[in-house]
Amino acid sequence: MDNLFFGVPLFAVLNTALLNFVTASRLLYGMSREGLLSAWLGKLHQRRATPYRTLLVILPIAIFLALSGTLQLLAGTTATLILAMFCLVNLSLLLIKRREVETNGFQVSYIVPAIALLLNLVLFAFASGASHILALVFVGIGMLLILIQKAFRRG
C-alpha cells in the first residue's frame, strides 16, 4: 500500500513534467514560425514531424531547473505561470467580446470568462511569494529573449 501512495504522486509529477516539456517545445516551435525566435527552431523532423531542435534547447533548461530547486518551488512556479496565462486568456476573451459584434458562431456569455478570471486570480493569490518571483524571472527572461531577437532582426 505504501508503494501506491508513493507511485501515484510520482506518476502525476512525471506526467506533468512530460506535458510541460512537450508544451514548451511546441511553444518555441510556434514562436519560431511566427518570427519571434530563430527560424532554426522551426524545423521539423523529416520522419516524425516533431520540432526536435526545440527539444535540444528545452532539455538542458529542464535538467537545470530540476537540479536547482525543490520540487515544491518548481511545481508552484509552473502553476503560477499557468494561472497567469489563464488570466490573460480570460481577460482577452472579455476584451474581444467587448469589441466585436455578435456572430453566428459559438457564443459565450460575459459571465463565464469573468468568473473564470476571478477564480484564477483567487488561486493565483494562494501561490507562494517565491513562486511569484520565479515566475516573474521566467517571464522576464522570455521578454528579454524576444527583445534580443527583434534587435537582431532589425540590425
Structural features, described:
By secondary structure, this protein is an all-alpha fold. It has 5 helices and no strands. Helix 1 packs across helix 2 (52-68) and helix 3 (71-99) crosses helix 5. The radius of gyration is 19 Å and the shape is globular.
Outline type: globular
The topology string of helices and strands comes to HHHHH
What is the helix fraction of residues, given as a range? over 70%
Radius of gyration: 19 Å
Largest sheet, strands/sense/barrel: none
Distance between the termini: 62 Å
Low-confidence stretches: none
Overall average pLDDT: 83
Number of helices: 5
Strand content: under 5%
SS-based structural class? mainly alpha
SS elements, strand count: 0
Secondary structure elements and their pairing?
Layout: H1 2-33, H2 52-68, H3 71-99, H4 111-125, H5 129-154
Helix pairs in contact: 1-2, 3-4, 3-5
